[in-house]
Design goal:
The chain is an alpha/beta fold. 35% of the residues lie in helices and 14% in strands. It starts with a helix and ends in an 8-residue tail after the last helix.
Length: 281
């Protein structure tokens, strides 16, 4: 056998071994294992004593007290047998003792005769129609100022100083994350923060359409996990159904923005706080 043939045989053999080694590393051509898309399940408070995963420098700090009462309310709602809970920090300092509020008294039944005719609004004129008032030229500004979306929340200065558009929920999310040192990029309607895509769903009609759109926008990014912040009411049972079908995408209401801002004020992770206050047990 001539030397050139031997060289070709050896080259083919080496190439075959190289291909086999690559196949073994990739699982014989199967798909590579994707990154873990699961969210770390937040610890829910349980029992009469709840321990937050932080050390309180100032127990009366408003941002801390909001988180304290948030986790207390969640715990009381989850266990009807509890009438009160105590919330402590990691060092054992008692931050608050929260008692379940008394139930509202039963409504007082009144007859139609006693109650009188029902109207949609009070009539201070006794039924008479007041003469129209002409405000033109009076110099009085009758416009009622509207609150920006961001003004619904108590925001630390670190967030407010980064807020570009107070009417935009996405801008507020971006300011919160960047105040915590999280780099963000806007990919269409998705706010990208590391391996997480955050989408705002404005629910002003059909929640199914709003959440479907948010999910599809997230899916287009190819990111392993997502967070949908719905502004507007969505049935919690419907949210559980969606999260069961796609556990890598979690859903929170607009109230989560306050938890995230409070986490920034306390030096905690705002993305983790979106799902609930940081609890050890």
């Amino acid at each position: 056998m001539d030397p050139l043939t031997l060289i070709l045989i050896a080259a083919v053999a080496v190439l075959g071994l190289l291909v086999l080694w690559l196949l073994v590393r990739r699982g014989f051509g199967g798909p590579t294992r994707p990154p873990d898309p699961t969210w770390k399940q937040p610890v829910e408070g349980s029992g009469r004593v709840i321990v937050l995963d932080l050390v309180a420098e100032d127990p009366e700090r408003p941002s801390l007290q909001r988180l304290v009462h948030d986790v207390a309310a969640r715990t009381l709602a989850g266990d009807p047998a509890l009438d009160a809970v105590e919330v402590r920090d990691r060092a054992g300092t008692t931050l608050a003792q929260v008692t379940r509020p008394d139930p509202l008294p039963p409504s007082i039944e009144t007859t139609r005769e006693v109650a009188g005719p029902r109207t949609h609004r009070p009539d201070p004129t006794g039924g008479s129609t007041p003469p129209p008032v002409d405000h033109q030229g009076s110099g009085v500004d009758l416009q009622v100022p509207t609150r920006h979306f961001a003004d619904r929340f108590e925001l630390p200065e670190a967030v407010r100083s980064r807020l570009q558009d107070p009417e935009s929920p996405v801008a507020l999310l971006r300011a919160i994350l960047e105040a915590a040192g999280v780099h963000t990029e806007l990919d269409g309607e998705v706010l990208v923060a590391g391996d997480t895509g955050v989408v705002v769903a404005l629910v002003d009609g059909d929640p199914n359409a709003a959440l479907n759109r948010a999910y599809l926008r997230f899916r287009d990014t190819g990111l392993p996990r997502g967070l949908v912040v719905h502004v507007g009411f969505v049935d919690p049972a419907y949210v559980r159904h969606r999260e069961f079908a796609a556990p890598n995408v979690r859903h929170v209401g607009a109230e989560a923005l306050q938890r995230m801002a409070d986490a920034v004020d306390l030096g905690s992770d705002p993305l983790a706080a979106a799902l609930g206050p940081p609890v050890l047990r």
